[in-house]
């Protein structure tokens, strides 16, 4: 009866807030699977189980609620709802949902943290351009010193 303004059909399994469509997942680590050792893929990775080794992909890494990664992570984008114990390096966007737990340093360009997510570690974001504040403090100190000398 009602038609959208776009040519796309309604797909209830696709959420516009996620980073990729579910059909584009290339590798799935099932809920009962435990992977020990480094894990690398050029496509999207969906983790539902446990990975005890470094995880690397140039595309999207999705860690579902209840899933665990016990090592360092490198990805193009990442959506974490489970837990990661290790450093997380993402080229673009890292999204932590309300059930996410990350224990490790995080490096990304865009960080989205939902209320309830737990994060412990150092956060580094690419693109920051703040001038060194130490250089700005030096003239202020000299003015204070000169003012105090005039009062004597």
How would you describe this structure to a colleague?
By secondary structure, the chain is mainly beta. It has one domain (1-152). The protein has one helix and 18 strands. It has one helix at 133-151; strands at residues 25-29, 34-36, 39-41, 44-47, 50-52, 55-57, 60-63, 68-69, 73-75, 77-80, 83-85, 88-90, 93-96, 101-103, 106-108, 110-113, 118-120, 123-125. The strands form three sheets. Strands 1-4-7-10-13-16 form a six-stranded parallel beta sheet, with no helix packed on it. A six-stranded parallel beta sheet has the order 2-5-8-11-14-17, with no helix packed on it.
Global mean pLDDT: 79
* Gap from first CA to last CA: 86 Å
Largest sheet: 6 strands, parallel
Query: How much helical structure, as a percent, in the residues?
Result: 10-25%
Q: What's the shape?
A: globular
The helix/strand class is mainly beta
Strand tally, please?
A: 18
* Element-by-element helix/strand order: EEEEEEEEEEEEEEEEEEH
Name the beta content range. 35-45%
Tally of separate helices: 1
Our Rg estimate from Cα atoms comes to: 22 Å
Runs with pLDDT <50, length 5+?
Answer: 1-18
Instruction: Count structural domains.
Output: 1
Biggest sheet, spatial arrangement of strands: 1-4-7-10-13-16
Q: Which labels suit this protein?
A:
12% helix; 39% strand; disordered N terminus; 152 residues; mainly beta
Quick take:
The chain has 152 residues and is mainly β. It has one helix at residues 133-151, and strands at 25-29, 34-36, 39-41, 44-47, 50-52, 55-57, 60-63, 68-69, 73-75, 77-80, 83-85, 88-90, 93-96, 101-103, 106-108, 110-113, 118-120, 123-125.
């Amino acid at each position: 009866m009602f038609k959208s303004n776009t040519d796309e059909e309604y797909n209830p399994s696709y959420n516009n807030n996620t980073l990729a469509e579910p059909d584009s997942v290339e590798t799935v680590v099932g809920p009962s699977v435990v992977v020990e050792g480094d894990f690398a893929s050029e496509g999207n990775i969906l983790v539902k189980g446990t990975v005890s080794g470094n995880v690397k992909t140039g595309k999207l890494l999705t860690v579902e609620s209840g899933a665990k990664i016990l090592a360092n992570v490198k990805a193009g984008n990442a959506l974490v709802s489970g837990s990661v114990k290790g450093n997380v390096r993402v080229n673009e966007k890292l999204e932590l949902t309300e059930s996410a737990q990350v224990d490790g340093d995080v490096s990304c360009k865009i960080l989205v943290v939902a209320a309830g997510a737990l994060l412990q570690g150092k956060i580094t974001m690419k693109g920051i351009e703040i001038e060194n504040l130490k250089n700005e403090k030096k003239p202020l100190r000299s003015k204070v010193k000169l003012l105090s000398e005039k009062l004597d």
